[in-house]
Model the fold of this input.
Amino acid sequence: MKLLIIEDDENLASTLARRLTKQGFSCCVAHNQSDALLKAHENLPEYILLDMKLGMDNGLELIKPLRSLLQHSHIVLLTGFASIATAVEAMRQGANDYLTKPVDMITLLKALNSEKCNAVTPVSSEVMSPERLEWEHIQQVLLSNNGNVSATARQLNMHRRTLQRKLQKKPVQQ
Done:
């Protein structure tokens, strides 16, 4: 089971590779977009673990090229900045799964070993907090502006620096 780990944090990448090797995966690590595409072409992995933020690059931009090169690979997007908008966009681009950091090994293994499932996931009846709703709305507007912070700030009638500070924070949980 070949696995390509695309993660800019070298310590996390090596930890994931070490732990997943113990689970039977043959791991290869890439730390940036160009290296990821090269290693994907060389190794033809069956599984890909992709970080959404790769330094200054966006991991979402890698999904389509990886999917066109490896149609049957199972792609799991891993992020510390989760939002509904990015989850929808990741699935639209071709990712099979979307997990938030920190992720435990059991959840990660389930995501990597799961086939595309047609089962409907039950929707939680919990109501989102106002802070979480704000985060989701900002992410949706940012996505509609193709990541342009200035255009998003104008559209939200917010100062650009205020928006940048909000984007640097981790999302509020429910």
Q: What stands out?
A: The domain at 2-113 is CATH 3.40.50.2300 (Rossmann fold). Helices lie at 10-22, 33-43, 60-69, 84-93, 105-113, 130-144, 149-155, 160-168.
